[in-house]
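hiii, so i know i said id send this last week but things got crazy w the move. better late than never?? heres the sequnce for the chain we talked about at the cafe, plus the structure i predicted for it. fair warning i was half asleep when i ran it
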Amino acid sequence: MPDIANILFLDIETVSGKPNFDSLGDDLKALWTIKANQLARGQTEPLTEEEVAEAYTEKAGIFAEFGKIVCISVGVVHRDKAEKKLKIRLKSFASENEAELLQGFSQMVFKYYNDPNKFGFCGHNAKEFDIPYICRRLIINRLPLPAPFDLSGKKPWETKHIIDTMDMWSFGDRKNFTSLKLLAGVLGFPSPKDDIDGSQVGRVYWEDKDLRRISFYCEKDVLATTQLYLRYKLMPLLEEDQVVHVDGED
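okay and structure toks below
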């Protein structure tokens, strides 16, 4: 596992591709109707149009084929030699234009983190959600995959640079799903979910149009993931004065 200074901690926030089901074209309406009925396993009757529309609002954002990324937040840990302690710099790529934010994120990876033998990428449930979602949306937007994200056909030992804090907690239990909020409570560091939660991101984006709030929320998840990683490594947690939020191109 790479040194913590060579790990890019990350989290993404996603929403439905359109504000609501009625905004979709006929082809995507038909395809989402099929998907929504597949998700409603155990229901004997097909979903009504109203139920299909409701399912779109609630669930489309978690599927890369029907959703989009509105924010990717990252955290970079470095050693402050003067103060002799770790610090983290948090930054968000957020935009209504998904291709724009993906390009910004990818350019950073290409420039600074493109060697999977040296650098790692860490997120909570990153192997099952964040990384595949980013890769799929890059392809949909016709953008190249950075080398660390070109995972198709790779063997498990060739993807060790993808570090998943939820996978670390599973200890081999493949049925395990433990939320970041629960682990924060159990392991004694601040919960990231004190403003909004994932179920509210779509509303904050489409109705409130508040990308800044979403970015702040996403950065909290990155910080919590970093704290969780530090807990696993029996290292001291980061204090408030060790956290720096970076705006713009800095």
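btw The longest strand covers residues 67-80. thought thatd interest u
miss u guys!!
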